[in-house]
Amino acid sequence: MMKFRFRRQGADPQREKLKQELFAFHKTVEHGFPNQPSALAFDPELRIMAIGTRSGAVKIYGAPGVEFTGLHRDAATVTQMHFLPGQGRVLTLLDDDSLHLWEIVHHDGCAHLEEAIHFQAPSRPGFDGASGLPSLAHITVVLLVAAGDMAALGTEGGSIFFLDVPTLTLLEGQTLGPDEVLRSVPDDYRCGKALGPVESLQGHLRDPTKILIGYSRGLLVIWNQAARCAERIFLGNQQLESVCWERSGHTVVSSHSDGSYAIWAVDTGNSPTAQPTVATTPYGPFPCKAINKVLWRSCASGEHFVIFSGGMPRASYGDRHCVSVLQAETLVTLDFTSRVIDFFTVHSMRPEDEFDEPQALAVLLEEELVVLDLQTPGWPAVPAPYLAPLHSSAITCSAHVANVPAKLWARIVSAGEQQSPQPASGASVCAGGEGGAGVPRGHEDGTVRFWDASGVALRPLYKLCTAGLFQTDCEHADSLAQAAEDDWPPFRKVGCFDPYSDDPRLGVQKVALCKYTAQMVVAGTAGQVLVLELSDTPAEQTVGVASLDLLQDREGFTWKGHERLSPRLGPLPWPAGFQPRALVQCLPPAAVTAVTLHAEWGLVAFGTSHGFGLFDYLRRSPVLARCTLHPSDSLAMEGPLSRVKSLKSMILPARIRNSASGKKRTVAGSKLQEANAQLAEQAGPQDVEVTPVQRRIEPRSADDSLSGVVRCLYFADTFLRDAAHHGPTMWAGTNSGSVFAYALEVPAAVAGGEKRPERAVEAVLGKEVQLMHRAPVVAIAVLDGRGRPLPEPYEASRDLAQAPDMQGGHAVLIASEEQFKVFTLPKVSAKTKFKLTAHEGCRVRKVALATFASVACEDYTETCLACLTNLGDVHVFSVPGLRPQVHYACIRKEDISGIASCVFTRHGQGEAGRRLQSGLLGGGDVAPYCASCRLLGFYLISPSEFERFSLSARNITEPLCSLDVRWPRGATHISHRSRESPKLSQANGTPGIILAPQSCDGSPDPICKEADTPEPPEAMLSPMSIDSATSADTTLDTTGDMTVEDVKDFLGSSEESEKNLRNLSEEEARACAILIK
Hints:
The structure is a single chain. Strands 30, 31, 33, 34, 35 and 70 form a 6-stranded mixed β-sheet that branches. The protein has a 5-stranded mixed β-sheet with strand order 23-24-25-26-37, with no helix packed on it. Strands 38-39-40-45-42 form a 5-stranded mixed β-sheet. Strand 15 and strand 16 (210-215) form a beta hairpin. The protein is elongated. The chain is mainly beta and 1077 residues long. Residues 280-380 form the Lethal giant larvae homologue domain. Pfam families: LLGL. It comes from Bos mutus grunniens (Wild yak). This is LLGL scribble cell polarity complex component 1.
């Protein structure tokens, strides 16, 4: 009898095949703003933009949803980037003095970015023959000349080398050394001083043989490369920073290290020019910082633009990050909150045009991209359709809502448009795009931002600000105010990145949204729980405030943390959008660790480190308050900063317990190992596998600190009192492995009415479960008679999901950090379990229930449990059998913040998306997408970037882009890499995915165009899809510090009925999803 306990049957080939049809792991796209940008480039012909980063990533952006990503082999900083105009090629310079040529390569109807060839600058002296010229050891500046066929490389030694771009080989005999330039300089200017490094190289728009050279010493030279002579010389004496050559060639503008810029006139004389036409220090006369870059843009009106970065007074505003825009007498100092990387203007580049006539100014900052409309009076900022900073304030929580009804989607978009109206001229740096899916996210400053996540680029939809409801330590400004007219410099705050919070108590910890009633719950750091409802019109109203004491007058507990937020009294104005209906204040005012909303019952449940409460927001009255503190939980009353003090005192007792228990297990463990060895020798057939030895998990002590933290809350209509009657219930799980189940008496709504009677809701404790090992409870879900999760509120009543089976016996799935366990209801007896920690040696961090559809058969689906562990692995288990199916390495185990920020979406089905088109930066087109049953996830790969992954084998979500380019005559692809399996490079170094275009039915769908069709360059995106339904919460503290407990996981407890969804009209449901943060 014993030996069969240690044996199991071998793998079933049929089941293994089915797993391949159901599950597949893919990292698909990266959302957000590139982390640590370092270089910028713009192609005015193709209207695409490139950004390089310090990690060596290259990202090219066209229309919204059209993105190309590449990664250099060496993790070196990208210092400069230059497009070969109209060719879809970009030349990058790294800080190790290597040059890399990238090209957008088409393969099977789609395109990807690929490194074609690279060049390492030689460091040996005397490279150019026997001239003894300085080595090409450090390249300071790169200039593309002759339509991109040749590149001029300025070096630190003052020499200029010329490079053949298609082959990236140096052209011998054309090197320009500083000695050759000095021959044309007057003797009194030489004075035995070197010219210094080459700081700037500028080409002539109409004459590619002329190059404007700027040396660090201040010398400017117009060099004719064909005649090998200097045509004009400008004898500057101030250290040079940058140079700009006006398009007609008659004006040169130089900026200098003392905060000044000079305008030089290019006349026909041959004598060197010693004095500029105009020399000014805009923010003088006191010492100023250097003007790092200057641009001159001409206008037909004669009022030309001068745009420069830096130059601020060193003593007063030396720490400001500014770009100044000067036109005639109008000067605006754009004040940013992060460092300026680079900037460019969108203007005419056709040689036949006489003037630039700039349309927009794009400024790349360290944390965001800001675009200004230069054609509209006042030069307003243009709302970015993508590349908006996800981390404008520190992200504290995220949620995902899918299959948003069309009416709710339109109302949210309308509210967002009222917040950020488009400029009258319609100027923008983006074009095209796809609407449909999104994510709301909570931030440290008390804001909740909604994002469209249906495509490759996250598009901002709407921002909710909760700070206006409270009296904070300093006045909160929702919009960035302009400086007063009499102030100097004339600062104007621009951009939305704000790393500072007015009051840390405003931080949003949990968000829950009901997509059918447009109601939302926002919970914060100071125990505030805000119930909001979407309104299409502005309103002025008073918000009702209720307090709930979770300690229940327990003696011996004194709160030593922060104070509660004081709400503003009286009627308050609220713009169109989500408006507050009720405010619940938890006492003590600790951070909310779990929240859940049931709009059909009008109830919201919330939990902190002290207990949990239930609130009826329809009657604005508390229903239940339960304290979960253990008598030894004094640490929970000290606030977040004092918890570190007890770390040292916790380590020693833990070591003593481990050593004592180890001695007791020595003798018994040796006997057990001998018995296992004898049984293994008696094993019969070779195909019988031995069950892996389980790790022994010591039960956690009930005296452990923070055992009362509420980890999850859950509403369900199930059998709790007896097997004959089902009704509303509420479940709560704590950090000590305790589960509380309450039976609720919710007055039923009148037939045909939406509102329920005014009778109070009652809650009675029905069951209380204590897990043996006292592991924290991560998630709870009730399964119906068919073993499927219960649908969301209103889904069954509105025929949006299949009604649950209320005839068979229900079961409750309790997921702790160490194991999954299924209990029967209403007896709450153990049915099956899987000890994840004992088998795999890891702990559960995130959990989700999802429906997986088969690739081979559209009608075959399975409901499974997916979990993310503290090692970064994703495991999938069958439900309710809890049998392991597959597991994948998703996130590096060292990436604690990535694991903590992971969001699982829920299963769902969607319909075709829609198209949006507008803007300036790249004409784009987005194909419709088709959604299917699948489980998706998001996690942070940097403070400003999310990565999306998929666990479904059906309809992989990935960007498939195409870009029309005009190659020069005779030009060919020069990439040396294999074309058999093109992959999308991930900027964070994670494995790529195979690009395979798919249509909505899963068949190959290549994108093709007729060659003779005259169309402007545009980009195409193949089917994109995201399907999940409702919300999932984030912010799990994986480090063990439970200061701000963020471990509530929303379970995907609804299953959409495919038959019912097919019958829905577009006005009832659409394949939309919202990302909330």
